[in-house]
Sequence to fold (801 residues):
Amino acid sequence: MAKIKNNNFLNTVHEVFTDATQEGVLHLYAQGNSFSGRKIQVNNSELFHFGTTGYLGLEQDPRLKMASIAAIKNYGTQFPLSKSYISNPLYAELEALVHEMYDHPIIITKNSTLGHIGVIPSAVDDEDVIILDHQVHWSVQNAAKMLKSRSVPIEMIRHNRLDMLEDKLKKYIHSKKHIWYMADGIYSMYGDYAPIRELMELGKKYPQLRFYFDDVHGMSWTGKNGTGYVMSQLGELPPNVLLFGTLSKTFGASGALLACSDRKLHQKIKTFGGPLTFSAQLEPASVAAAIASAKIHLSPQIYGLQEELKERTGYFKMLLQETELPLIDENNSPVFYIGTGMPKTGYNFVNRLMKEGFFVNLGIFPAVPVKNTGVRITISRHNQKEEIEALVDAMVHHFPKALAETQTTPSRVFAAFNMEYHDNDIPKIQRTGMKVEIKETIEQVSTETWNRLMGGRGVFDWEGLQFLEKVFQNNVQKEHNWTFKYVFVTDADNKIILATFLSLALWKDDMLAGAKVSKSLEEIRKTDPYHLTSKVLSTGSLFTEGEHCFWDQTHPKAMEAIDILLQTMEDLAEKNEAKMTVLRDFKQKSPWHNPMQGHGFVRVQMPEACYIRLTDVHDIETYISQLSSRNRRHYRKDIIPNLEKVYVETKNHCNPNQLTQIMQLFSSVHGNNLGLNTFSFPKALFHNMNEHPHWEFILVSPKDRDDDIIGVMFCYKNIGRIYVPAFVGMDYDRLMDFGTYRVLLLKTIERAIALHMDKIDLGMTAAFEKKKLGATVEEKYAYLQTQDNYALELLGIMEGQ
Fold:
């Protein structure tokens, strides 16, 4: 496998969101001429609203509305000037009131996203380092990434893992001025907390530690003067904490705020904070609404509002505890998350609840791992006990129906979130007449059956898999030991609908990352060889490329067979503790796409695959004559002159000296290809190739030194008349002098023609060079399912550092 294109993350998010939109659970439009907060109109239906972030319902408070109306009448719809020059007449009062709430200097920002972009680059020095909780809000991560251009290191730890944080502190304590830890106070998906008090103890132990908390979801509904969850834990704001709150969401107005007790730092940020200087200021209506809300926060009334909300959230929590619904985190925030596991189950469940009259939010990638899709329910003061109770009743009724309709079970959902499920008597999904069979070795599979299904596809005909099983077993290093599984899905008449082979192996997490990231990680692996590596269950293997699944698309149960395979792989991944599941080498338009996304897989684009068909081609001259005029010029100009410099031979068996050389050449290519960063192969591979009748070597040497090999192509002769140049080895120091790669490509084509092969599978990478010699290029895609997003987000942070 080779490097994934850099824009794949955005493409993947686009596909996931498009899928959810088509299912009617995302990018909806509210309707109606008015909005009360208690109900929301969607698709011409009035639904009870359990998706708001206005937990106290202040956005509907008459005092805020009247203040906004008056401000528009008095000052207009906006005050179109930068705050660096002059603020609208209402700003001074708002700043004074919010300062009074916190009893510390504050800065008002247009919104939290622009606020982070303004504050973080101003607060963090070039001599500092940033450590991110991997669930900290996207807006914080995005702002932190801006500091890459100043070479500020950015690290990431797993969610709330203080042991990992302390390891990072020890790493940087002697080299950095300040160590910034950035986290949310309340996390927006699961509603769980940052361990504030434990973090403060770490701050005492490590004086260089600074904290940056985004507490927009903790605002107003808790804390003195509604200053939020973080302040409720701190009591007083210490100098080593920067705290972001909000004037929108549950505050009821618009904008965000920074509280900072370090006056020198506060002045530095306020003087010039990027968007704080250049962005438009809050509209007069927003400032006026925020003033009205701040006055409520500074009055005893805020505690009454908090108690009303607390009563509702407590009631909802109590009702949930009486059910078997998978509540992912039990806490006292107004945010609740019911796991569904697979996206298709989430879509089904949300749609069922909407039909029952309840609006809830879908939690989906990238906010959560795709496999951790669920329903986020928020409680507000608008919600009354009768509809809270009705929502729980509807969830209890429809949750099992959504599971059954999407062919999953409660145990699968609980397992996806690493939660224990105690009822072991839940039956597995039954499919009439369908059966799945798993073989542990190719020796248990009929040669005729396997080659009939998969024989003409690559280095995975029956003989090829027998070879791979022998190579990747009983090796010293664990990355060289792979487990193979052979999966068959059959109908009631034992007719095979689907067949594939799987490999379970150790992969480097950065295999598909940029070369710069891999180079950095390889430095760490010199002392910690298994840093950021994971066990992966994949169709095919890291040694093979091509269409790894036989699938009878015409069978009436063809789509059910896909579901059975995916569930089988899920079970195998859980049993073998695999962190990622991969199905790969699909075309762009594939009938597998919808079932894969529904099962929690995301699609990523792989490098293009190349192949050459040799029908009615009997010699290399005929082949060259069929190339385009441009490609024939390339052949005459860039290849023929090099043919005169080299000696080329094809060998089925190399002597010990030759074998040593070709192993070194392969190692050279492997070590230089950090864009495709995999573990090396065991030495047993090359020795077994040398003894296997289906493998041969195309060797290139300088014409005057036929014992000095400068290039090698490792080629497999598939029983289906497919020639597979699986790997290449080259001497990079002499690559340009002899045009080694181009010579190897030409001689590979010539050899395949001589063997009367029907097709050459040239594999991935170097598509440009292969295309110049007549190769057809195809886009290829893989589908990935990860246990969590940590590695993905960590590698994203590392890109560009």
